Amino acid sequence: MTLRIGINGFGRIERLVLRTGRPNPDLDFVRINDPGGGAATFTHLLQFDPVYGQWSGGSDDITSTEDAIVVADAQVKLYAWHDNEDGDACRVSELAAKAGIVDA
User: Global pTM?
Assistant: First the structure.
């Protein structure tokens, strides 16, 4: 069973969660909530992390659309909510927040 994951915030730690979890076929990153930027900015930060270096996802190309980051043809939708009250609406199983990361 695939675990669907939403990330609240997309700072250095949250980008690391996506980088390390992306190769795992049992994890499906479905959305990111961060009111502090747009898809192009977050895509660039994911590709060129100041601490972990350039994206080394192999054949996983990273691009962006107006409201999503696309990693190897899988879309991760972006939201800019200050209040994540609607988090269950898209059927996210787990939420990796700044305070805790899902142990997968």
Answer: 0.74
